[in-house]
Design brief:
Rossmann fold, disordered N terminus, single chain, Helicase, Ruva Protein, domain 3, five-stranded antiparallel β-sheet, alpha/beta, Beta-Lactamase, 4 domains
Length: about 475
């Protein structure tokens, strides 16, 4: 959604050199450069000799753009009218969308459209539009002292969710993004650590610079050394030329080191040196190089325990632990499941012959499932449902994966009639709810659930069978 309390001063922004250049590039391709904010779309003065022109499609244009702005891409092609497509790049400041730049045809009688351009031309124009949007965001950050966020946000940058844990995370990201502090992101696999890192980068003064990502667990020690710091020609067999490392590529930008807990002690020393002094040497080289890089690290491992065991350097741990963000697993923000489901369905609907919807029972089962694989598992499940449903408009719960049907079966149980107010019925209802919640907390493990409820496992199995909560195989 657009930021409700701030507006972009387009009279100043349109004079930015990059926007003037982009406007000229768009004109040469028969297109117009435009902007969009809460007031609607208007063509920029550079395209029409200083005369602003209201978008002929009014609020429909804004609504269609807004519905697409949570996608992780920096630019995209959207349909703003049945006969017209536009290139769109959102302007994000501190995680909030404050507007968007558009390239396309705004006048109702203009026949120019993106299909007349080749895929390569569209990609080039899209990259330029995204670069201009980042430049606008940088301009806003330097000219606007403070940005007041809405009380409740549907998302942040490309992150989706409106539950209380996510609102707390967004408030923290507002402060963290504006700083230069090193950040450690911790959380289970699939919770969106890279999305959070990218949101911090996009909301920072480095947002127009490089955002570099590497996974420290994807390489052995020697390869990771070369990957991070580069190598000199002849440093090892196969080093036929000098190669810059990712730290050099990320200079003046942000470097996201995922799974930093899997890094060897030798490389921990070299990374610590970059963090403390900003210097390093390439593999096989003696020349010291200097970079200005903001580090954002992530791990799903317990680094504090590793420090205690002597497998992780204590000085590096405290150097990357300046700001610690712990991402909540999806089971702790289950109210976000329907929001995420709709987001993933919207992606699947694009280009589909007909819209897809989930049945209420299917959504209820998805909401009650504990999601050990978190958001990534949910996204894969939605894609699976859409593929298996064929041409069906509504997707029923019978298509859900067996593990989801089993672990969510206890939640979808007919409730006692509203007029049945007897004490035995009320006690049975309470007993059933407590068992459901315990099974959900422990992902269907009856041994742990029985310990939590302080009943024997045999007793719990008997009650599970009595209430038909699942098939009692676990």
């Amino acid at each position: 959604m657009f930021h409700p309390t701030s507006a972009i001063d387009w009279d100043r922004v349109v004079d930015l050199e990059l926007l003037r250049h982009l406007s000229a590039v768009a004109r040469r391709r028969g297109l117009t450069l435009g902007w969009l904010d809460a007031a609607g779309a208007s063509s920029l003065p550079h395209a029409n000799q200083g005369e602003a022109e209201t978008c002929p499609f009014g609020g429909n244009c804004e609504a269609r753009v807004l519905s697409s702005l949570h996608d992780p891409g920096e630019w995209q092609v959207i349909e703003v009218h049945p006969a017209m497509r536009e290139l769109v790049a959102p302007v994000r400041v501190g995680g909030a969308v404050m507007g968007a730049l558009l390239a396309g045809a705004f006048a109702a009688d203009d026949t120019s459209d993106l299909p007349t351009l080749g895929e390569g031309e569209i990609a080039i124009l899209g990259d330029l539009l995204a670069l201009a949007a980042r430049e606008v965001a940088s301009h806003v950050r330097t000219t606007t002292p403070t940005v007041i966020a809405p009380a409740e946000r549907q998302g942040y940058d490309a992150i989706i969710g409106r539950s209380p844990p996510m609102q707390a995370l967004y408030a923290t990201l507002d402060r963290v993004a504006r700083s230069e502090a090193t950040v450690l992101i911790q959380g289970e696999n699939g919770t969106g650590k890279e999305l959070v890192a990218r949101a911090i980068h996009n909301g920072s003064d480095r947002g127009a610079r490089a955002f570099v990502v590497t996974n420290c667990s994807a390489f052995n020690d020697n390869l990771l050394d070369s990957e991070l710091f580069g190598h000199k020609r002849g440093a090892f067999t196969g080093a036929v030329a000098d190669k810059p490392g990712l730290f050099e590529i990320a200079d003046r930008g942000t470097f996201f080191l995922d799974e930093i807990g899997d890094m060897s002690p030798t490389l921990q020393v070299k990374v610590l040196r970059v963090l403390q002094e900003g210097t390093f040497t390439r593999v096989g080289d003696t020349e010291t190089r200097k970079v200005d890089v903001r580090i954002i690290a992530a791990t799903n491992r317990d680094l504090r325990a590793m420090v205690a065991q002597g497998t992780y350097r204590e000085d590096l741990y405290y150097r990357i632990h300046v700001i610690n963000l712990v991402l909540p697993p999806l089971r702790e923000r289950s109210s976000d499941v329907p929001v995420l489901v709709e987001h993933f369905l919207e992606r699947q609907r694009r280009g589909a012959p007909r819209a897809r919807e989930l049945s209420p029972t299917c959504i209820a089962r998805l909401t009650s499932y504990p999601w050990p694989g978190n958001v990534r598992e949910l996204e894969n499940e939605i894609e699976r449902l859409v593929v298996l449903s064929g041409d069906e408009g509504e997707i029923g719960d019978e298509l859900l994966s067996p593990r989801i049907r089993q672990l969510s079966s206890g939640v979808i149980v007919p409730q006692p009639a509203a007029d049945d107010r007897s004490l035995p019925a009320a006690l049975q209802s309470l007993e059933r709810r407590m068992i459901v919640e315990a099974l959900r907390r422990h992902q269907g493990n009856k041994t742990r659930a029985s310990a939590d409820l302080k009943v024997s496992r045999r007793n719990l199995i008997r009650l599970v069978q009595k209430y038909g909560l699942d098939d009692a195989r676990s």
